[in-house]
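Hello again, I could really use a second opinion on something today. My current little project is about how a certain protein chain folds up. You're getting the sequence in one-letter code plus the fold written as tokens. Here's the protein in full, and shout if anything looks odd to you:
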Amino acid sequence: MSEALIKKCLFPAAGYGTRFLPATKSMPKEMLPVVNKPLIQYGVEEALDAVMTGMAIVTVRGKRSIEDHFYINYELEDQIAGSDKESYLKEIRRIMNQAVFSYTRQIEMKGLGHAILTGETLIGDQPFAVVLADDLCYSTDKGVLSQMVELYKYYRCSIVAIEEVPRNETNKYGVIAGDEISPGLIRITNMVEKPKPEEAPSNLAIIGRYILTPDIFDIIRQTPPGRNNEVQITDALLVQAKQGRVLGYKFKGRRFDCGSVPGFMEATRFFFDNVYQD
């Protein structure tokens, strides 16, 4: 097997998850379980399937349980050793054997762009993926990141996953416009963060899957705060897009917005009926 082009995946996990209060008062939103696995584990599995083994996680105080989840719990393992319950740990053991986890903390929450910049020390000077764990993606064939890596092999530029959303929901997303260069693949010419429906350049929204080239870090450093006085990754990507270096990809699969209670419940029902095996 040839060496992986994208070796590391960054997980910005510093948000408070206020839409799930009071549950997220003491539990990171990334640890909310869809059936029997926390959201962030689904994202890590998707990255592993795309042959990425370096998991770089940006957290804040109070999210230690994320680190604990991807570490050995000696007391628990001793208690269930030799029982049929031991099989429940099979997947997480595989993840811990295959992936290397590194962590850093975001001192201030100043937007997704700032969170990604915080992860620079874990990524270094190489292309990398970004997964927002509360966008849970499902595909019967290749995962979304695997699909995007295939594109990166050819185009070698930043790529964002996109999907059509109702016009009245454009104010929840970064929204793109551009020219379709092949079915489902758009060379982006414009990007707007959370535009009002009447100001949106299209109804094509960016969802939580990115492949970014390493020059994005320097661009973010020079990007002033935008909407909500936060450093937006959309604004930084627009700099690359104006140079013709950002693609929007209409991925194959289904996305669940697990950052909202209705989306989280929809995902739970779907995964229980279609994916979960007792």
